[in-house]
Specification:
Length: about 80
Amino acid sequence: MTPESLDYFFPFLVLFYGFTMVFSLSNPYLMKIAEERISSEILLRFKAHLGLGWICLVIGFFWSLQSLLFLANALPY
């Protein structure tokens, strides 16, 4: 994998992490299942990632949008 391709895919990875954390921690059904099956210590660590998830979601969105716009402007017409 070249550094250029890594520069292209990394913002989408950040966006995906943010989406996964926010979706899983904000969904009442998934949290109910997690509370039943996961110990309270691990669940607290998991819940601590909600703030990081929101940051990654917002930054990943704009960073991915920038990558897509930059790619669209770099293509010859």
